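ok so dumb question maybe but i'm new to this and my supervisor (M.) told me to 'just get the structure for S9 family peptidase' and walked off. so i did the thing. is this what she meant?? sequence i used:
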Amino acid sequence: MKKLLKFLTCFLVLGFSVNAQKPMTHEIMIKLKKVGAPKISPDGRFVIYSRVETSYNLDEQTSDLWIAAADGSSEPRKLTNSKGGEDNYQWSVASDKIYFIAKRDGDDAPQLYVLPLAGGEAQRLTTLSTGVNDVKFSPDGSKIIFSSRVFPTAFSDSASKKLADEKKKIKTKARVYHSFPVRYWDAWLDEKQGHIFAMDLKSGAQPVNLMKDISLVQSPGFRLGSYNFSPDGKSVVFTATAEYNTTAYQSAKSNIYSVSLSGGKESVLVNDETDYSSAEYTEDGKYLIASGSAIGTKIYYLNRLYRFDASTHSAKKELATSLDRPINDMEMAGSSIFASIEDQGVDRIVEIWVADGSVKPVLGGETGSFTGLSLSAKSSVFAYYYQSIASPPEVWVSSNTTLKAISKANDAVLAGLDLQKPEVIWTKSSRGKNIRSVVLKPTGFDPSKKYPLFVLMHGGPASSFKDVFGYRWNPYILGSAGYVIVMTDYTGSVGYGEKFAQDIQFDPFKGPGQEIQEAAADAIKRFSYIDGSKQAAGGASYGGHLANWMQATTSHYKCLISHAGLVNSEAQWGTSDVIWGRELMNGGAPWVPTKTWKEQNPMRFAANFKTPMLLTVGENDYRVPINNTLENWSIHQRLQIPSKLIVFPGENHWILNPDNSKFHYAEIQGWLAKYLN
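this is what came out, is it supposed to look like this??
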């Protein structure tokens, strides 16, 4: 197996650069097929997945379901042909039907459809005015549960329609709030709540709202989490909080509840000092498995796995205690749990035993990332995503340790590109930490030449530069004009243990910025092809924050790029959609004169700003609102520093429109060329 994995990762990372000359361009990247997460049939014979055909013209963009033999014996074929696309697709228990959510002609909101594998057209199963989300099937496949966002007092679809019609008639347009939060990412919040609905597929009955008699929904802080069927299919276990309206001054805690499929009041299953995000019973009904994180004053807590006795919901036991790594996704498999974990820049698949919590490696090496798990009835046959920095996600199947490429949607295009192999280096920082960085050489690399350096900084900070393909800050495009890229996982990054992620608390910029610069200096020392006299740095979100910190503390960069970056921590605290975590990071509210607020706010050091800077922002970004970029722009203009401001109307925290994305890349490349060439 180890030899097979080594071959697989070498082929996928290195294979595309052999005898290839073309660089990755935005035009090539935008036309790559986007393959959705796989779903393998319970009998292990077939895999379905979505495939998006992208285009600069959004009217020409399509998304459809594809199906392929799980053993790779046949080429994938398209199952659907609709403009809207399908979501939440999954198999029937008997592997003879495919269910999916779609918004098709005549639908005012997304509805559930079923498509017989034997042939025929997809049939609509629901007509709920508020739509259908996240469908789950009972163990025998006869019933479903799903969520829908409704008004708190609307426990029937007729009531939802009536309230919606009444609100449309109100001429006054005002948003009124009594508690926090008021907006999230790029949308203003309203009074609607997520409710759980149940529906009997065999009888053809209409969906029933299970929350009618649940007291939680009366709380202004109610927010639904995840949900699953009980093993007997007679009740639903779910996570929820009644404290979402308190997140201005504390972390909201979710508990574990259950409700009968016939309705009634909720039962509290688990209420302790853990914030639970998911809960699911083992197939034999013996245990309840829950994931959750601690509640405390740390800036970051790892999500951990817990086992409870299913009959009493007590005897809490933590599983995989030695893991100390984030879990991306997981699926129950008899007496064990298969999970994808993030580990030092890659995603691996492991098996966690329910009985004793032990962990066994399944798939993963030092390169590439394995996620999107989907298990068949036999856990030895499963589908998954594989991707790397050089290749977008594709569907693979593992059958008794034999690995098969299934989707292969982009192989032909990637085979013609010069995608240099990334190199990982570890730097011992001045603080004694081992810091991981990825070094990427430019297209057409010539070892006899010297290349400028672009230091790319990731967002988060609870994120990392994983070996995954990126569309928003693709390093192959950024370096295609002749730049070496260095990407460093500074303190605060995840995949290196809970403590490493927590250590950024009270030191949001100084320590990470120092590590980034030390790693860059290490790369320059190691690789003679890097021209250390020509350096630039940039990033988005937290990477944009760090770019502004570099502006405040060093002048050795030729230019800087900050997208969605804060320049004033105090203003960011008060205008962002989330604030409590910022208070934890800085050791108190902004009016408390903590050392961090005083010494690590870039705006307080504006007198040091000297470096030419490109500033970009989405006008609808509520995570790092536009006021921070405008304040930064004002500082640069006031100090007469060469600078450029680009505002994208209609965009949020990310620049998603293909034409806007192309323009954004071109502006970044133009800025680098102006100061590095």
